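Blinded run. Sample ID left blank on purpose so nobody reads anything into the name before looking at the predicted structure. Input follows.
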Amino acid sequence: MLKAVILIGGPQKGTRFRPLSLDTPKPLFPVAGLPLIQHHIAACAKLEECKEILIIGSYPTTVMTQFVSDMQKEYRLIIRYLYEFMPLGTGGGLYHFRDQVRAGNPTGFFLLNGDVCADFPLKKLWKFHDAKPDGLVTIMGTEATRQQSVYYGCMVRETNTNAVTHYVEKPNSYVSTLINCGVYVCSLQVFQVMAEAFQRKQDRFYSANGHGGPEYMSWEQDVLSQLAGTHKLYALQVTNWWSQVKTAGSAIYANRHYLELHQNKLIDAPCKILPDVFIHPTAIVHNTAVIGPNVSIGAGVTIKAGVRIKESIVLNNATVHEHSLVMYSVVGQDSSVGEWSRVEGTPSDPDPNKPFAKMDNTPLFNNDGRLNPSVTILGAGVTVPAERILLNSIVLPHKQLTRSYKNEIIL
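Blinded prediction complete.
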């Protein structure tokens, strides 16, 4: 038997995902028609050996209850949400709930960060790990450019054994182009290593007169870095698609790839479709609209005559009125785009001319204090009047615009 653990953090994190995370928790933000972490659950459910999924985070239980219930019914798995009483770090939450992970004595467990998206090769990862009897953790790794690698966990490994000899989280200088994907397979014995790390943190905490917090533990720095060079930490390099979801721009990028992966689940519509597109069955789309490529339309959305939408996500109960254009944008739930309006952003995809390039999660503002061009975001309940242009802008929830905007944040 196997288990899976998904780490989703809490509302204190994911600030770069605002304003989208102000009304929808980032782990539940819909990408290609499914909440972000439902893609993780679907990948785990494909493995017959996986019998239980634990979701660990510090979002209030009331936020997650309905989602967990829906997932249990859909996938017929035991799925539980374990609430962190306070943010405990990427390792602290896992160690705090170690008894729930070990219950039933599983052979091992998957550990997945909730803010990554991928074509998860979990079966391949498990077979690799199972063939390493001395291995405690196997990391799913991928290639990055030399310049981008320093923004991730970097690994050096032995060529013949794939054992990780050196691991550094976000190094100050170049270490390796092999980076950590935030997807792991672990043996239960890893909790012994975590217990030692926890004890060291306790000792430091009390010797420093209570400075630092003894419960907080970093999985990457307190566990992985300690295991490197012991022949208990391994890395499997994969070529499957993988990305992080840190910003709205990365959600648009993830949306495109998940739509491609789930083509068999896409729904036909009476309008002109340029694949790949997801349209919720409850959405109303006029037959003169042109949708796609790479568009997700949520429940209760109304798309009226002559509308053109591409490379965008339209969230639940939004309305796009006649002859409007929406490109490289996220239209928030209950928002309205007036007739003959144009809502357009700038794509922030990886550089196609650089092999292995990942998303550049650029800061919101450049050195001159100006807003960096990115996708346009309409928060929940925003109204864009007729015949307005909105370019490279971010609109906070429940705003009623009175004019056109370019490169602005509308507070």
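Unblinding after everyone has recorded impressions. The radius of gyration is 22 Å.
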